[in-house]
Amino acid sequence: MLAIKNNLMAANAARYLGQSYDALATSVERLSSGLRINSASDDAAGMAVRELMRADIAVLQQGARNAQDGVSLLQTMEGALQVIDNLLVRMQQLAEQASTGSYSSAQRLIMDNEFNEMANEVQRISTAT
Questions:
Q1: How far is the CA of 108 from the CAs of 35, 89, 115, 119, in angstroms?
Q2: Which of 29, 81, 107, 122 fits as disulfide partner to 103, beta carbons 3.0 to 4.6 Å?
C-alpha cells in the first residue's frame, strides 16, 4: 500500500511540476515578446480586437504612402510645368524678335528652328510627364 501511495504522490508532483513549467514558459513568452496577448488562449476577444486594430493600422499606413506618392507626383508635375513655362517665355521672345523686321532671313530661320525645337520639347515633356 505504501508503494502505491508514494507513486501517486510522485505522479502528482510530476503533474504539478509540468504545470509549473508550462506557466513558466507562458511567462517567458509574454516577457520576451512584450505583448499582453500572444495567442488566442490568452484573451480571445482581445486577440480579435488586436487583429482588427492591426488591419486598421495597415490600411492607414497604406493611405499615408499613397498620399506621399501623390505629393511626389505633384512635385514632378510642378517641375515639368516650370520648365514648360520657361520654354514658352523664350518662344514668345523669339516670336517677338522675329516679327520686328530687323533680322535677315537667315537669322529668322535660326530663330524659327530654335522655336520649333522648343515646341518639340514642350510636346515631349507634356507626353512624358
A1: 77, 18, 10, 16
A2: 107
CA pair distance 113, 94, nearest whole angstrom: 10
**Half-sphere exposure in the Cβ direction for 27 (13 Å, CA):** 6
Tell me: the pLDDT tens digits for 5-27? 567 777 788 888 889 988 888 77
Tell the burial category of 23 from Cβ atoms under 10 Å away from its Cβ (0-12, 13-18, 19+): exposed
pLDDT reading at 35 higher than 80? no
Residue 38 has pLDDT above 80, yes or no: no
